[in-house]
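User: Predict the full complex structure for these chains.
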Amino acid sequence: GGIITQTPKFLIGQEGQKLTLKCQQNFNHDTMYWYRQDSGKGLRLIYYSITENDLQKGDLSEGYDASREKKSSFSLTVTSAQKNEMAVFLCASSRENQDTQYFGPGTRLLVL
Amino acid sequence: QEKVQQSPESLIVPEGAMVSLNCSFSDSASQSIWWYQQHPGKGPKALISIFSNGNKKEGRLTVYLNRASLHVSLHIKDSQPSDSAVYLCAVSSTGGNNKLTFGQGTVLSVIP
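Assistant: Here is the predicted structure of the two-chain assembly.
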C-alpha cells in the first residue's frame, strides 16, 4: 500500500499572490497529476508528469506552473491567485499508462 | 476534446435499493472507463473500470459498457448508507498517457 500527502490542507492567499501546493507519494509511481475540482463539478487536469523532471500541460494549465524534481514529489504553483479559482486541488499518481490513479485528500484554496 | 456527461445529478434512495448511475462520453476510441467514489473532504477513490463492451461485476457493483451508443452505467446492488458519496465517471484518452476526463458527478444519498 501507499499514501499521497498534500500540504497544506487549506491555503489562504491574497488576490495576485503566488502560492505553492505540494504533493508527496510513497507508491513509487512514475506518473503524477494535478487536478482542480470546482464546487459541484468534475475534475479538470492542470499538469501531469510521466517521470522525474518531465512536465505535460493539461486542459487548464494557464495561470499555473508545476515542478517534478523528485520521483516522489510534484509541486503546483498558482502564479497569480484569482478569486475565481477558489477550488480544491487534487494530486494523484499512477503506476503506468492505463493504470488506476490514486488521489490525495486535496488542498482547498481560498483567495481573499 | 472528450466530453463526459453524467446523469442524474443527484439521487436519493432507501437502504437496500438498487442504484443505477449513467455516463455518456463522446469519443468511441476512448480507452478504459472508470468509476470513482468521493466522500466529503476526501479525494476520489477508484471503484471499478471497464475496457471491453459488455459487463463486469465486482461484489455489489456491476458496470455495463456499450461503445456503439457511447454509454456506460454503474449499478450498485443492496445500497448502504456508507455508499452515500459523489460518483465520478472518468474516461481515459487514447495516446497512452492515462489522461482522464471526468464527468461532473452524481451525488448519491442512501437513507437508512
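Residues 75 and 98 of chain A are 23 Å apart (CA to CA).
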